[in-house]
Amino acid sequence: MRHKRQVEPLRKRRICVVLPGYDGFYGEILKGVRRYGESRPQWRMIFRGSPDLFGPDEVFDGVLGDFANERTALILQYKGPAVQVTNFGDLPGVLRVSLDEHAAGRVAAEHFLANGHRHFAFAGYEGVQFSEQRLEGYRAALGLRLDELHIVRFAQNFRFQHNIYTTIDWIRKLPTPLALAGFLGGEIMGKPQKVIVGGWG
């Protein structure tokens, strides 16, 4: 007589999703991850939005999300599988899902060139990896040296309203019509005149 082998029920995978503290491109990606996880009963998704991510006795099968700023040290202490969903730079031993930042800058430049523009500018962030990569893609596609391109860099405080007013004062001094690529809100559209904006939000 053959004995039936007992099959243990599948254990639910505990996946910690670290939500960003802002709305934007990567925030939308993580919302999609949430919808994906909710459709899979074998996943138990734990959502965290604060720096206090892990309790002393918590064990996860994987962690994914926005690990920027104060969360970096906590993620590096975590020994399991982790995927970073952000463009704020690489962490040692952590996979990252991100954009091709060089290509984003190149596409902006190709659009301006195709529309006959001859004066170019870039607004970005000081010392931020994705901003510098987009600048390099933009500059290379334009075929310009850095000293031939009008550039303004903001501090890493992401004060969008302040950046907008700073940019308006700056571009008023530049030749027009001006093709401007940068990290700018929609409020700058049409201010001042003769400025074509290709922005990333």
Protein described:
This protein is α/β, with parallel strands linked by helices. Helices cover 30% and strands 22% of the residues. The protein has five helices and nine strands; from the N terminus they run βαββαββαβαβαββ. It has a five-stranded parallel beta sheet, covered by helices on one side. It has a four-stranded parallel beta sheet with strand order 7-6-8-9, with helices on both faces. Helix 3 packs parallel to helix 4. It is elongated and about 65 Å long. The termini are far apart. The mean pLDDT is 76.
Layout of helices and strands:
Layout: E1 13-18, H1 25-38, E2 43-48, E3 62-65, H2 72-77, E4 82-85, E5 95-97, H3 101-114, E6 120-125, H4 129-142, E7 150-154, H5 160-171, E8 178-182, E9 195-199
Parallel strand pairs: 1-2, 1-3, 3-4, 4-5, 6-7, 6-8, 8-9
Helix pairs in contact: 3-4
Structural descriptors:
single chain; 201 residues; alpha/beta; five-stranded parallel sheet; four-stranded parallel sheet; 5 helices; elongated
Strand order of the largest sheet: 2-1-3-4-5
State the major sheet. Answer: 5 strands, parallel
Stretches with pLDDT under 50, minimum 5 residues: none
Shape call: elongated
Helical run tally: 5
Q: What is the ordering of alpha helices and beta strands?
A: EHEEHEEHEHEHEE
Helix content: 25-40%
Distance between the termini: 69 Å
Number of strands: 9
Which structural class should the secondary elements be placed in? Answer: alpha/beta
Task: Please state roughly what percent of the residues sit in beta strands, choosing from under 5%, 5-15%, 15-25%, 25-35%, 35-45% or over 45%.
Answer: 15-25%
Mean pLDDT: 76
